[in-house]
Amino acid sequence: MYMFDNRITIEDRPILEKYLNGYEYKTSGLSFSAQYMWRESNMFSWDMIGEYMCICGVSHLELEEGIILPFMFPPLTCTGEYDREALRETILQAREIFKEKGQPFSLRLVPFHLMEIIKEAVPELRWEDDRPNYDYIYLTQELIELKGRKFHGKKNHLNYFKKTYDYEYVELTSDMADECMQFIAEFNDRKDVPDHEREMLRYEEEAMEDVFRNLEAVGYTAGAIRIDGKIEALAVGGQLGGNTITEHVEKANVNYRGLYQAINNEFCRHVASRAKYINREEDMGIPNLRKAKLSYQPCKLLEKYIGVFRQDR
């Protein structure tokens, strides 16, 4: 369900980025590259309410239970600042729009530092910890160097890969979209997952094809590793604020030992000049994904919260 009339389009990139880049949100979902990539599967839509841009979407974390919930991101500013009364008015108006459409209102994916600002403006909100959506943030240089005992296992896998396989890292362009999609299809075919996860893979395939055909227009940073001339791993990211790259997608053929470590390492090397940090997004509460992201030793977990009105509970 689209809560607002305006959709996320390439044509609207300038106005959207004016607000997405108007404050250091630091959260992976609040970049144009993320908004565009998941605009269909998450039904993102936007509108101006008062002084702020409001973006709505739907949450799929409850998809296994057959529940799809609409929500709103924290209102976005283009000035780097928030006015308490104006922010309050925007949130109250948004709540009324949700009511008119018969939907429960919630703010989701609110980073801790912004939650504190919203608390002052709207004390009626009750806040819940949203651990499945915490962002994993890493120092780019650490992921390149893999120094010390904490990275010993990663370095061993990477060294094995480099010694064993003849490979090349290439920056992806939109004219390579068909080659990328062949890799994505083969990657997903190897997975044995429940029906609700298979449905999410279908959403992802549709999103990825659009992304690969619009890499330059949207401003993605993307690269792949070819082995014997064929793509066997790829990564796609986008700029987040002034010093961070969000890695939206990272996939590798597990039949090649060390390939996951190699694509991560090469991607980081190629973005290091403009990214002190790598944001590898959330784990969605999936145990194996959480274990994998923690194994890369994040320098910070960006806490996110859900805000609901007390009287609406």
Please give the number of β-strands: 14
- DSSP helical segment count: 11
In percent, how much strand structure appears in the residues? 15-25%
Tell me the strand order in the biggest sheet. 8-9-10-11-12-7-13
Provide the CATH superfamily of the largest domain.
Answer: Gcn5-related N-acetyltransferase (GNAT)
Largest sheet: 7 strands, mixed
- Structural class computed from helices and strand pairing: alpha+beta
Low-confidence sequence ranges: none
In percent, how helical is the residue content? 25-40%
Give the count of structural domains: 2
What is the name of the CATH architecture of the largest domain?
A: 3-Layer(aba) Sandwich
N-to-C SSE series?
Answer: EHHEEEHEHEEHHEHHHEEEHEHEE
Alpha carbon gap, first and last residue: 22 Å
The best one-word shape is globular
Using only CA atoms, what is the Rg?
Answer: 20 Å
CATH topology (fold) name of the largest domain: Aminopeptidase
Mean pLDDT: 94
What is the CATH C-level name of the largest domain?
Alpha Beta
Salient structural properties:
single chain, 313 residues, Aminopeptidase, 2 domains, 4-stranded antiparallel β-sheet, 38% helix
Q: How would you characterize this protein structure?
A:
The structure is a single chain. This protein is α+β, with helices and mostly antiparallel strands. Helices cover 38% and strands 25% of the residues. It has helices at residues 13-20, 32-37, 84-100, 112-121, 140-145, 152-164, 177-189, 195-213, 215-218, 259-271, 287-295; strands at residues 6-7, 45-49, 52-59, 69-72, 107-111, 125-129, 135-139, 167-171, 221-227, 230-240, 244-252, 277-279, 300-302, 304-309. α3 (84-100) crosses α4, α6 (152-164) crosses α10 (259-271) and α7 packs antiparallel against α8. It is globular and about 60 Å long.
